[in-house]
Specification:
The chain has a single domain, classed as MFS general substrate transporter like domains (Growth Hormone, Chain: A). The chain is globular and about 65 Å long. The longest helix has 41 residues. The protein is built from 19 helices and no strands. The protein is mainly alpha-helical. Helix content is 77%, strand content 0%.
Length: 446
């Protein structure tokens, strides 16, 4: 009897999705909130500490320099060692560092805290991308990634009103922004400890699967890996010579130069445009991120349904550029500007799910791990450049309009570069695999 004789593939894929995705989703919510909450805290820190726009730009950006250090090692550790142990280490260390950011008093202390936060979190995202290749077939991977990427706008949509309330707290000698760092950092430590007991490295280790389900999934994943080997086996170092790797790296570099700056500077931009309070700026920002939730889900679903990765990514990048540019048209009322920004939110987070499915579609396991690390390194270096450049522009008297046009140009250039990526045809999944797509858990109830 074959290993899959008593296995319902659709039920198995749902079981895997519901076990893996909600927990990864929770982890990434905490990760992104701890990474980006400095943008929320800025609204109060600036008056308390007297930091300039350039100081914040450098502080926002220096996180990504620390993050760069363990990108490739982090991806390889997940592939060759243990995702469970590696992710637990990351969570505990970044939670502690994030909480300690509350006690920064000088620009240098702020820079050190942000740099150490980047070092602590390094390797998490590329590690997750590799981890998904241990559980999801290529046909499902973009939607599984959308479940992860959905955590970005979700964490920011949740973090905006929560942070708004935390900024009001004053007590025990701490300001509201300090309480925000502490109370949003410590949950990562608790989840890190839970990770050691909950997360499973590979299907063969999953006691929550029946033996025949473990065998079926292992065989299906191995067969897909072998099919990719037949398209041309490449070594780790050969992967670094591939044209596609460099196009993807440059594409995400351009896109994230605008994308990360938009994430960190959006509350400041909205406050300037609206002329309202800090709390109102955070609530308006929440609408932007709520729109992002819709875009992420639709992009992952559509990309899996059609099998297209590249043009879903490129289309979202170009539409983001168009909508940002629209928000800069002169003589517009604030509600109209927010309309443009709401449309921006719909597409600004829609490109990563199909984008991150591209490397694992064409490369062997180790080559994909290294390539993902390299591509993400480029994306995170862009986080430094984009934030530093935006802080410099604002510090030298440039207003919101030129800063927004700079971001739009970054997205447009990223789309142009990704449009040149060559996507070879791979063996199609079996009819059973195509018949019932994976069901991504709803993050609002996970």
């Amino acid at each position: 009897m074959s290993p899959g004789a008593n296995v319902d593939p659709a039920a198995l894929r749902r079981k895997v999705a519901w076990r893996v995705l909600p927990f990864v989703f929770l982890i990434y919510i905490i990760a992104y909130l701890d990474r980006a909450n400095a943008g929320f805290a800025k609204l109060k820190m600036q008056s308390d500490l007297g930091f300039s726009e350039e100081v914040f730009g450098a502080g926002f950006g220096i996180f990504f320099i620390g993050y760069l250090l363990l990108e490739i090692p982090g991806a390889l550790l997940v592939e060759r060692w243990s995702a469970r142990k590696w992710f637990a280490r990351i969570l505990i260390s970044w939670g502690l560092v994030s909480a300690l950011t509350a006690f920064a008093r000088t620009p240098l202390q702020f820079y050190i805290a942000r740099f150490l936060l980047g070092v602590a979190e390094a390797g998490f995202f590329p590690g997750i991308i590799v981890y998904f290749t241990h559980w999801f077939l290529n046909v499902d991977r973009a939607r599984a990634l959308s479940g992860l990427v959905m955590a970005v706008p979700f964490s920011l949509a949740l973090g905006a009103p929560v942070s708004s309330q935390l900024l009001r707290i004053d007590g025990l000698g701490l300001k509201g922004w300090q309480w925000m760092f502490v109370l949003e950092g410590l949950p990562a430590v608790a989840i890190g400890a839970l990770t050691l007991f909950y997360l499973t490295d590979r299907p063969r280790d999953a006691k929550w699967l029946r033996p025949e389900e473990r065998d079926f999934l292992e065989i299906a994943l191995r067969q897909e890996a072998e099919a990719k080997e037949t398209t041309g086996k490449i070594s780790v170092w050969e992967a670094l010579k591939l044209r596609n790797v460099w196009l993807l790296a440059l594409g995400i570099f351009a896109t994230n130069t605008g994308g990360y700056a938009m994430t960190f500077w959006l509350p400041t931009t909205v406050k300037n445009l609206s002329g309202g309070s800090d709390e109102a700026a955070l609530l308006y920002s929440m609408l932007f991120y709520c729109a992002g939730l819709v875009g992420v889900y639709v992009a992952g679903y559509s990309s899996d349904r059609t099998g297209d990765r590249k043009w879903h990514c490129v289309g979202a990048q170009w539409l983001t550029a168009l909508f940002i540019a629209g928000s800069t048209l002169p003589s517009q009322s604030f509600p109209l500007v927010m309309g443009w920004l709401f449309c921006t939110g719909l597409v600004a987070y829609a490109w990563p799910p199909p984008f991150w499915a591209l490397p694992t579609t064409t490369l062997t396991a180790s080559a994909a791990a290294v390539s993902i690390g390299c591509v993400n390194m480029a994306g995170n270096f862009a986080g430094y450049l984009g934030n530093h450049a935006t802080g410099w522009l604002r510090g030298h008297g440039y207003g919101d309009r030129p800063c927004l046009l700079f971001l739009a140009g970054c997205f447009a250039l990223g789309g142009i570069l990704v449009s040149f990526v060559s996507v070879p045809s791979l063996p199609l999944p079996s009819s059973a695999a195509r018949a019932v797509p994976i069901t991504t858990p709803n993050p609002s109830v996970s």
